[in-house]
Amino acid sequence: MKHTGKELISKVMRHEEVPRVPWVPFTGVHAGFLKNYAADEVLQDADKLYESLLEVVRLYKPDGMPICFDLQLEAEILGCELQWAKDAPPSVISHPLADTDEIPNTTISKNDGRLPLVFDVTKRIKKQVGDEIAIYGLFCGPFTLASHLRGSKIFMNMLKNPDYMNKLMAYCTEIALTMVDFYIEAGVDVVAPVDPLISQISPKHFNAYCSENYKKIFKRIREKGAFSSFFVCGNAIKNIEVMCQTGPDGISVDENLPMKEAKEITDRYNVAIGGNIPLTTVMLFGNQQDNMKFVIDMLDNLSHKNLIISPGCDMPYNVPAQNGIACAQAVHDPEKTRKFVENYKKVDDIEDIEVELPDYENRTKPIVEIFTLDPVACAACTYMLAVWEEARKELGSFAEWGDYRYNIKEDIARMRKLGVKNLPSIYINGKLRYDSLIPSKEELINEIRKA
After folding, report:
1. Domain ranges in the chain?
2. Which of 90, 236, 358, 382 has the greatest CB tally within 10 Å of its CB?
3. 275 conformational bin, left if phi > 0, alpha if psi -120 to 50, beta if neither
4. What pTM was estimated for this model as a whole?
5. 391 touches 444 (CB < 8 A)
6. First vs last Cα of the chain: how many Å apart?
7. Rounded distance, CA 319 to CA 137, Å?
8. Domain covering 360-450 assigned CATH 3.40.30.10 in the classification
9. What is the 3-state secondary structure (H, E, C) of the chain?
């Protein structure tokens, strides 16, 4: 008996055995790339988004797919200014609560901002392919939404103003619950809060500010008859267990996280896990064989129960279409693909790039280097970079500053030579100081002065 993709996703979310592992490409603005639409077009024009999603269906044969991957939808409605890009989702550039301790009483409606566009396309896609494909509704998780509203000051608030922090999280959770209701009314099958900044806090702070709020979110989704997936970015391995304890049906993780170790934790809680094809080194800069081999290796090294194959996060805009097709082929026909790549060895041109690191031992000034995945598309990277920039403005020539990004081949080569393992991270004098943990501006400045 052949199962539809939607049936496969349902079985995984119910923790049943499946005849094959399902495939969920998080195409985001990459969907627009497939039809030659810029990112700002596809996120502001319903017809172009709809057309692009049908192209995702045609090329990538997904079992499940999101309508859009834009964590700024709610923030824009609540007063954050956005900076738009042609090849990435918009980024938040202003924070309405940065200079006030007031808690808003603003609510959101289905008619606000770009939500009418999203729900219009959701219903159209549901009608067109919803019998075959599980439709995902993604929204901004409450901690990242709180960060959008408050800015980098939120990390100091966690330490010094817990009452305010709890009130802000309660407000953002109400916004999240509203988005849950809207998406389920629009007919989605899987509702997924995406909270990239969860990877930047400790389990202690997760339990203090996020745990009870997420239990409410997943309870609401379950009561309304949909499945849930908890999406986190960065190396969130320290928080996977506390995330499982909030009761999601599944968790989605990115390439920074050791998949086998994470799956051992999620399996103990009988939670599905999705991920984590590398976005740049494999999907963006690799070839078809690289993508096939990564997926086959994942299938061969992980138990198939409670497993979904996905990119590590929102796919970069200009990933070659043949690489997404290669991943789909590996999932749909692993036996044939396995034979095709059995003798393949990756040709790594990044290894040929020469990199000269600073003389950290004989420096005359502290050297402060930040390494990010993509500070435009990655919220955790955005906020770590913001703190780094604030410290740079205050200290100026007191230190030397370096900004390196994982979507640039020369910067990837530099990270390899230095031994950077997780993103985002900050190194001071060539030594790791912050790894998937965003400091406050004051803490970072103190560390630089010590150096």
Report:
1. 5-341, 360-450
2. 236
3. left
4. 0.89
5. yes
6. 64
7. 22
8. yes
9. CCCCHHHHHHHHHCCCCCCCCCECCCCCCHHHHCCCCCHHHHCCCHHHHHHHHHHHHHHHCCCEEECCCCCCHHHHHCCCCEECCCCCCCEECCCCCCCCCCCCCCCCCCCCCCHHHHHHHHHHHHHHHCCCCEEEEEEECHHHHHHHHHHHHHHHHHHHCHHHHHHHHHHHHHHHHHHHHHHHHHCCCEEEEECHHHHHCCHHHHHHHCHHHHHHHHHHHHHCCCEEEEECCCCCHHHHHHHHCCCCCEEECCCCCCHHHHHHHHHHCCCEEEEEECHHHHHHCCCHHHHHHHHHHHHHHCCCCCEEEEECCCCCCCCCHHHHHHHHHHHHCHHHHHHHHCCCCCCCHHHHCCCCCCCHHHCCCCEEEEEECCCCCCHHHHHHHHHHHHHHHHHHHHCEEEEEECCCHHHHHHHHHHCCCCCCEEEECCEEEEECCCCCHHHHHHHHHHC
pLDDT tens digit sequence for 182-191: 999 999 999 9
- 5-341: CATH topology is TIM Barrel (3.20.20)
Question: Is the pLDDT assigned to residue 376 strictly greater than 80?
Answer: no
Q: Which two tokens stand for residue 103?
A: 């808690």
